[in-house]
């Protein structure tokens, strides 16, 4: 580390030069840097996030309004367009406009809205703003070190940002050149696979040709929508048109899970793979200190295992329930056994929280609908297995004897209510079908909770 002596004329000539370079370092983009630091300090604020989504939705509304729809004779109302923009930005997949009414330019705008509003993108944006705040803090410390003339020795160094192992110690790279903070371009591979499948399978290609959709446009739209867990499909009937194409459902299924419930385990697995391939100490530090990285989706290894096991259990429960309750129902009528299995698995994966549907939900049994509502209610990081935060737990709690595993795995009161409602809907399904006025899910829910 280079040090400057403060004796004689050396410091008189050296300090102005150092101050000049440090000022240039800080004032490279003064307005943008100040704005990024202010946003970083408020990145987790509710009002900042609300302003971000409102701004993106407003821009999307004006862009959708300026573009011509597919049919010049049909122009949606302004409120419907704004509602569609907000729905795409917030990944809620609700629209009062038929999706087939949008032109290709409007579909591109919806793709951008889904991308900018997706959970993975917004989390990466918050991480980037946090990095900008750290960088601004470094520059301020450098300037304060340079302007301090009272010390006999002035040592120019930067505070830590992320570790790089060197001789059994850690030093830190302020530029963060070793860790890319941009999401992996997995969308390119997903859209390419979809394009190849649709081009090869005549039945899938015929659906798009009848709807007037280009293969590449549909592939990119579905890849972004599925990974963002938005649930928008550029077809009026959602994914019902592809219920006889299990290969297409298999291609979309991993994207549903990767963009939502399995994103933290896959992120941890990717970091572990990079560590194993490159041997870089940065990745080892990230694995051992995930809680200190400031990224909400970077969870400890045991928590990721519990989360992955929970996702698999929920998928299995929904898959078995769908196959048992709807195997011979009109919802699966006309499908082969293999298509029924793949469709049931795809439907189970989309309940948290993508919303793409390969079956007609209006004819699904009430018990399955109650189960779907429960799955939609659960947050992304819900873990059924016990996960204890030992670092933040009080010392008294850490010293207590470990409770029995069965006690720690007990359901909440809400879970018991939902289970009993589902059981009642199963046992009374004939009355629900023949006498919907007196026997419906709402009445059963009220009577059970009361």
From TrEMBL:
The keyword Transmembrane helix applies. Keywords: Ion transport, Membrane, Transmembrane, Transmembrane helix, Transport. The chain crosses the membrane at residues 46-64, 107-130, 213-235, 247-274, 295-321, 363-384, 405-424. Pfam families: TrkH. It is a multi-pass membrane protein. It is found in: Membrane. GO terms for cellular component: plasma membrane. Coiled coil: none annotated. GO terms for molecular function: sodium ion transmembrane transporter activity. InterPro entries: Cat_transpt, TrkH_K-transport. Belongs to the TrkH potassium transport family. HKT (TC 2.A.38.3) subfamily. This is Sodium transporter HKT1.
């Amino acid at each position: 580390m280079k040090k400057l002596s403060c004796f004689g004329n050396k410091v008189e000539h050296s300090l102005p030069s150092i101050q000049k370079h440090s000022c240039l370092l800080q004032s490279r983009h003064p307005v943008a840097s100040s704005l990024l630091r202010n946003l970083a300090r408020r990145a987790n604020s509710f009002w900042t996030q609300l302003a971000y989504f409102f701004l993106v939705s407003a821009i999307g509304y004006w862009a959708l309004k300026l573009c011509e729809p597919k049919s010049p004779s049909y122009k949606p109302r302004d409120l419907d367009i704004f509602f569609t923009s907000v729905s795409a930005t917030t990944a809620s997949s609700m629209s009062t406009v038929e999706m087939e009414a949008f032109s290709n330019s409007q579909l591109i705008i919806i793709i951008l809205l889904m991308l900018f509003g997706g959970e993975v993108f917004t989390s990466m944006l918050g991480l980037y703003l946090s990095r900008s705040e750290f960088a601004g803090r470094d520059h301020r410390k450098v300037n304060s070190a340079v302007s301090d003339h009272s010390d006999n020795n002035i040592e120019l160094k930067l505070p830590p940002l992320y570790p790089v192992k060197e001789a059994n110690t850690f030093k830190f790279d302020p530029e963060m050149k070793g860790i890319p903070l941009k999401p992996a371009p997995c969308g390119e591979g997903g859209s390419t696979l979809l394009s190849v499948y649709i081009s090869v399978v005549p039945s899938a290609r015929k659906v798009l040709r009848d709807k007037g959709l280009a293969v590449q446009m549909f592939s990119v739209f579905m890849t972004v929508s599925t990974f963002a867990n938005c649930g928008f499909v550029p077809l009026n009937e959602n994914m019902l048109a592809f219920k006889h194409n299990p290969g297409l459902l298999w291609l979309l299924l991993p994207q549903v899970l990767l963009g939502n419930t399995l994103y933290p385990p896959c992120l941890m697995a990717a970091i572990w793979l990079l560590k194993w391939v490159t041997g870089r100490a940065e990745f080892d530090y990230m694995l051992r200190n995930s809680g200190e990285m400031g990224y909400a989706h970077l969870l400890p290894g045991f928590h990721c295992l519990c989360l992955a096991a929970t996702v698999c259990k929920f998928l299995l429960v929904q898959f078995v329930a769908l196959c048992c309750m709807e195997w011979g129902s009109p919802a699966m009528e006309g499908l082969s056994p293999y298509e029924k299995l793949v469709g049931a698995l795809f439907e189970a994966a989309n309940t948290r929280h993508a919303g793409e549907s390969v079956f007609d939900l209006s004819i699904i049994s009430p018990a399955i609908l109650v189960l779907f509502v429960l799955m939609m209610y659960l947050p992304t990081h819900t873990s059924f297995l016990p996960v204890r935060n030992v670092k933040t737990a009080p010392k008294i709690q850490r010293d207590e004897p470990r409770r029995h595993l069965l006690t720690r795995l007990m359901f909440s009161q809400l879970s018991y209510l939902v289970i009993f409602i589902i059981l009642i809907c199963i046992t009374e399904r004939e009355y629900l079908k023949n006498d919907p006025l007196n026997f419906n899910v709402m009445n059963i829910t009220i009577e059970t909770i009361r």
